[in-house]
Amino acid sequence: MMEYKGYFAKVDFDDEANVFHGEVINLRDVITFEGETVDELRTAFLDSVEDYLAFCKERGEEPDKPYSGKFLVRVEPELHKTLVVQARKDGKSLNTLVNDALLKAVKNSNQQVIQD
After folding, report:
1. I need a labelling partner for 37 at 20 to 30 A (CA). Which of 1, 13, 68, 114 fits?
2. For the sheet containing 32-35, what is the strand order?
3. Is residue 6 located within the same domain as residue 38?
4. 3-state DSSP call for residue 27?
5. Which residue range is the domain that position 92 belongs to?
């Protein structure tokens, strides 16, 4: 996984073409890049993000933000009730309870979490 200015990219290797290719994965817009070496790949990634930001500025548009921090989760009504009751018992909002549980799950799975 690669990261630059809050944009994360997934990289694959095409054995037939002997080239690395990547794509920014935390945007609706499409940003891709490629390189034959790790250094070329890294430079292409940074250049692609910078080109995207310059393109947006040139058009007078705000670049797509990596994430807003909001998403909809659908759960069974019984689980929803259980979560609300637990949140109230803990003196938390439902959002705080869910945020804490998700943060704990991610940390337990050994994934990196970026916090401000």
Report:
1. 114
2. 2-4, 7-14, 19-24, 32-35
3. yes
4. coil
5. 77-108
**Count of CA atoms in the C-beta half-sphere (13 A) of 55:** 11
Question: Is the Cβ–Cβ distance between 26 and 67 less than 8 Å?
Answer: yes
Give 102's contacts (C-beta < 8 A, 6+ positions apart). none
| Total count of domains within the chain | 2
Mean pLDDT of the chain: 90
pTM for this model (two decimals) = 0.62
Contact indicator for 59, 34 with CB cutoff of 8 Å? no
Identity of the amino acid at 81: K
Stated as kind and residue range, the H or E segment containing 105 is helix 94-108
* Residues 99-111: tens digit of each pLDDT: 999 999 988 876 5
Place of tokens 């993000």: 49
CA 47 to centroid of chain Cα atoms: 19
